[in-house]
Amino acid sequence: MKVLIVLAHPEPRSFNAHLAEQARLAYQAQGHQVKVIDLYQEGFDPREGAGNYPGRKNADKFDPMQEQRHHWNNQQLPAEVQRHIDLLREADMLILQFPFWWFGAPAIIKGWMDRVFVYGGLYDSRHRHENGVMRGKRALLAVTAGASAQACAPDGRDGDMRLMLWPIMHALHYIGFSVLESFLVYGVRGGLAGEELRAQTAALAQVAQDYRARLGSLAAWPEVPFNRNEDFTAELALKPGAPEYSPFVRHRDPV
């Protein structure tokens, strides 16, 4: 199996970097091929824009989707974007490793998706969802939060962390990935000292150990359910009686 780990944390000694390394070691120990992309260390530019496409299809007006498709078809995408696409297409398993900032992923993760999930290459009108280019591959979000598990629970003060990650999971599913339930780590706080620091260090060491163990048994890892094409009408409305898997795709309340 080929594994791609995409790390998004600006500090190389962060716990996120440590978890990415633990995943790399775990998969290598199982005999798999592993590649790590460290977005910050690579200096990945998350900004999509006209300057990324010197050979524009339309020099008068910048249309990101059309320029992506045009440059994909002509094999003229920016080198860093093409390299990341090639790694994605080769991988059987993708892990996105990042901290939970301001109730979502760091901007560099969204920008990476904006630029790398290119129209024409990783999706089009015929290749989406369960028919996506990445069908048969698995994806996992491994995410840390500074708040407690209770604060990030559905009835917590910070809101349902798993629900707030759904748009990223949905984007991965949109290009065909089977998405595993996220690995969520709580209480990763900075600025600690003394007994608090020692207690957190011990707790996070156990988390890293548990993570490595779980990566050894992916067959038992639950998948995130999504509606399939047959659950929708020709107008893409959820059919009566179709299942609901998320508050983001649900039946309308009766008038």
UniProtKB/TrEMBL annotation:
Residues 1-203 form the Flavodoxin-like fold domain. Gene3D superfamilies: 3.40.50.360. It comes from the Bacteria. Keywords: Oxidoreductase. InterPro entries: Flavodoxin_fold, Flavoprotein-like_sf, NAD(P)H_dehydrogenase_qn. The keyword Oxidoreductase applies. Transmembrane segments: none annotated. The keyword Oxidoreductase applies. Belongs to the NAD(P)H dehydrogenase (quinone) family. This is NAD(P)H-dependent oxidoreductase.
